[in-house]
Amino acid sequence: xxxxxxxxxxxxxxxxxxxxxxxxxxxxxxxxxxxxxxxxxxxxxxxxxxxxxxxxxxxxxxxxxxxxxxxxxxxxxxxxxxxxxxxxxxxxxxxxxxxxxxxxxxxxxxxxxxxxxxxxxxxxxxxxxxxxxxxxxxxxxxxxxx
Length: 146
Known about the structure:
By secondary structure, the protein is mainly alpha-helical. It is built from seven helices and no strands. The radius of gyration is 18 Å and the shape is globular.
């Protein structure tokens, strides 16, 4: 018998004590409420995948997370680009091209991860997207608008 079967509360404490992959920091805010909300949602999704990987739930969550990220990304990119056009951001075309590249890579890596039933490439893609695009490219809005 597993010791956690004797004390189910111990298993819950272990699950609750596991760290998240990305801790939201107010410095990530751009000052654009809808975009900031989207970015927090993306962090939540990354953390959900990380939690599933830690707890061997990949079979149950990989497809829904990949599907959710894809759908969420299409909505987020459209709203972000509409905002940039509306307020005359000078590099909107370049930013659109970055979004197109990310969408293409997202599809490719998502399919491969599903076929292989392996979340690691997808997690690495999300981490790179977070670091390179959201924490670098999107911060340019903050410098431009504020």
